[in-house]
Amino acid sequence: MSWLFGSSKPESAPAAAAPTESAPAEKPKPCCVCKTEKTARDDCMLFSKTDDPTQECKSMIDQYKACMAGYGFKV
């Protein structure tokens, strides 16, 4: 029916979808990685009963920093 409308060019919609396939190779956002470590660190800091929660939660803070460093983020 393309002769009826005067256009015999194929549609270029599939070519437009190609650039979106390379997007997952980009670096993830800091908010989207290490969620369990971040939650554990935040809970420890927020609900700590000591005067210095940083000292009490040091191991969880270090785990979070190590996880973020694995994704290339410096915390």
From TrEMBL:
Q: Cellular component per GO?
A: mitochondrial intermembrane space
Q: Where is the composition biased (Low complexity)?
A: 7-23
Q: Does the keyword Hydrolase apply?
A: no
Q: What is its main location?
A: mitochondrion
* Subcellular location per the Swiss-Prot or TrEMBL entry: Mitochondrion intermembrane space
Q: Which Pfam families match?
A: COX17 (PF05051)
Listed A to Z, the keywords are: Chaperone, Copper, Disulfide bond, Metal-binding, Mitochondrion
**Region of interest called Disordered, as start-end residue ranges on this chain:** 1-28
One GO molecular function term?
copper ion binding
User: Which Gene Ontology BP annotations are present?
Assistant: mitochondrial respiratory chain complex IV assembly
The answer, when asked if Metal-binding is one of the entry's keywords, is: yes
Q: Which family does it belong to?
A: Belongs to the COX17 family.
PANTHER family under this entry? Answer: CYTOCHROME C OXIDASE COPPER CHAPERONE (PTHR16719:SF0)
Q: What is this protein called?
A: Cytochrome c oxidase copper chaperone Cox17
Protein source organism: Aspergillus aculeatus (strain ATCC 16872 / CBS 172.66 / WB 5094)
